[in-house]
Design goal:
This protein has a domain at about 40-135 and about 200-240. Helix content is about 55%, strand content about 10%. The chain has 23 helices and 16 strands. The strands form five sheets. Strands 5, 6, 7, 8, 10 and 11 form a six-stranded antiparallel sheet that branches. β7 (about 170-180) and β8 (about 185-190) form a beta hairpin. α3 (about 60-80) packs antiparallel against α4 (about 85-100). It is globular, with a radius of gyration of 25 Å. The N and C termini lie far apart (about 90 Å).
Length: about 550
């Protein structure tokens, strides 16, 4: 191990690394057709081409997919549609169909499973079962891919290479190894058939998705074609590991630009990166889900969570670049409390207009400024550009005091959700890729409070984070959103009311909030059970009642 103080000035890396990052000297950033920016542009062009619907479907594969999905939908339509068990029944039937259809659909299911709070709870819970369901490729196949891409025998590059993978996913699997120069590394190797299979399946999905519009309740604010578009854009970029390596450098640069030293990124190798192979620094630490182990080691888990949230917000709001797939498997906590980010295949990238919209959305939320928030959603593409902002605020009742959800009956809660959803769809609302990735990450970090900071005052954390941004980035925020909006005072009453707490509440912890969520969940569950019981009674009555002549 060598001291690499020179690359610490350009990226958030570990203090001591196996090599020094010098971006211009990294051979994989250049190709015969152009540099890394050209490669990224070509990838985006490829995604657009894949989304063009063919005149004829891609043969046998569309029949196979149609059969599997059709069988699931027929079963749902026959037994569950129109009942209180509709979404759970659909999810339960779609999951095994996705599993049988192979890696592409498993990957799509994993994308859905990470959308807690965006997609229906029943869909998320069921599709979580698809995680870690992809069997590893044989070592001989892995060896062949590496040797083809690196252009030399495995033994000329590595002194040891673990045959059993650390992890195996739908696009690639990861192995631990040691380079001939002595460095311990991680090697990510793409499945040999991944590119061809994903291309074929995206063509199939593009053909089938329009047929499913309005026929299945996938989600309120997205539809099958939009979901396929998001999936294609994400997958095509993930299939080129040179782009993932560049994502690592970009996020490391953003982190160092904001002064963050609590998050680190593994160094990609200067030369051992190709479209299908990615060699990187091997980082270790506590599993993100092992909060008890961290606390036993003296790590302040609440501080870890706070630093992760702040660094994510800084990247998105100030630089327009952020890790797009935060979850427990992609984050390790090192013994000194720093967080090691892993797997940079999905990265959110915002142009200047969208970055400013995200920033206005967040600043408006802290001061409960409604118009800037709706305007920001419009500029992000969540609402049509000709949307009447004042009408949206009035129709959704956003200008009224928020109702305490714990005082509503189950029917009232369902009615509120139904009315808001209907109004949003009437305005043509949708969920753009960047907004979905952002919300997904925020929901993950919020959920992490359950184990990482269950007793921390949520309102106090909001104040601390807003104060941090004001002190560290106040001048830039004022320039970006305007002094008038940036100078509005923090408004906490709306947060309290939305969570069902009175103005007099001094502190609100995650445990307090969870108790209220469980109360709401029990009410909705009781409503569902009541409706199922009533349906059963009606069915028995219809069966037993005398038939008319």
């Amino acid at each position: 191990m060598i001291t690499t103080s020179s690359d610490l000035a350009i990226g958030a890396f570990t203090p001591h690394g196996p090599w020094t990052v010098e971006p211009e000297q990294m051979s994989w950033r250049h190709s015969d057709t152009g540099d890394i920016d050209v490669i990224r542009a070509d990838s985006a062009k490829e995604a657009r081409q894949l989304l063009e619907r063919r005149r004829l479907p891609p043969g046998l594969r569309v029949l196979t997919v149609g059969f599997r999905l059709g069988r699931a939908l027929i079963g749902w339509s026959t037994h569950d549609r129109g009942t209180d068990n509709s979404r759970a029944g659909l999810s339960r039937r779609l999951r095994p169909a996705f599993e049988r259809l192979g890696p592409t659909y498993i990957k799509l299911g994993q994308l859905l499973s990470s959308g807690e709070g965006i997609f229906p709870e029943e869909l998320v819970d069921e599709f979580r079962l698809l995680r870690d369901r992809v069997p590893a490729e044989p070592f001989a196949t892995v060896r062949r891919t590496i040797e083809e891409d690196l252009g030399r025998p495995l033994a000329e590059v590595f002194t040891s290479f673990d045959r059993a993978p650390i992890a195996s996913a739908s696009i690639a699997q990861v192995h631990a190894a040691t380079l001939r120069t002595g460095e311990r590394v991680v090697v990510k190797v793409q499945r040999r058939a991944a590119r061809a299979q994903f291309h074929l399946d995206i063509a199939v999905l593009t053909w089938i998705a329009p047929i499913l519009v309005g026929r299945i309740p996938v989600a309120a604010l997205t539809n099958p074609p939009a979901l396929v578009e998001l999936f294609a854009e994400t997958i095509v970029e993930e299939l080129d590991f040179r782009l993932e390596a560049q994502n690592m450098l970009d996020i490391a640069s953003v982190l160092i630009g904001t002064g963050q030293r609590s998050i680190v990124v593994p160094r990609p190798h200067p030369h051992l990166v190709t479209r299908r192979v990615l060699v990187m620094e091997h980082l270790q630490g506590f599993s993100w889900n092992d909060a008890a182990g961290m606390r036993e080691a003296g790590i302040d888990t609440a501080a870890v969570l706070r630093a992760s949230l702040i660094s994510f917000l800084e990247g998105a709001l100030l630089y327009g670049v952020f890790h797009g797939d935060l979850h427990g498997g992609n984050m390790l906590v090192q013994p000194d409390g720093t967080v090691a980010l892993l797997d940079f295949g999905i990265t959110g990238r915002l142009n200047q207009r969208k970055r400013l919209a995200f920033l206005r959305l967040q600043v408006g939320a802290t001061s409960n400024a409604l118009e800037p928030q709706i305007e920001a959603l419009r500029d992000l593409g969540a609402l049509p550009m000709d949307t009447d902002v004042a009408a949206v605020i009035k129709d959704l009742g956003l200008d009224q005091p928020p109702a305490d959800p714990t005082t509503l009956t189950a029917d009232e809660m369902v009615g509120e959700i139904r009315d808001v959803t209907k109004a949003l769809l009437g305005y043509g609302a949708k969920l753009p890729k960047e907004l979905m990735l952002f919300v997904k990450n925020m929901l993950f970090l919020n959920g992490a409070m359950a184990t990482m900071a269950p007793d921390v005052d949520i309102l106090g954390e909001i104040v601390a984070i807003v104060t941090y941004f004001t002190e560290q980035h106040g001048e830039q925020i004022a320039r970006d959103v305007g002094a008038e909006l940036a100078s509005r005072p923090l408004e906490l009453d709306g947060y309290r009311a939305a969570m069902g707490f009175t103005d007099e509440s001094e502190a609100i912890t995650f445990r307090d909030l969870q108790e209220r969520r469980e109360l709401i969940s029990r009410r909705l569950q009781a409503r569902s059970e009541s409706h199922r019981h009533a349906s059963a009674v009606r069915a028995i009555y219809r069966t037993l009642r005398p038939k008319r002549e």
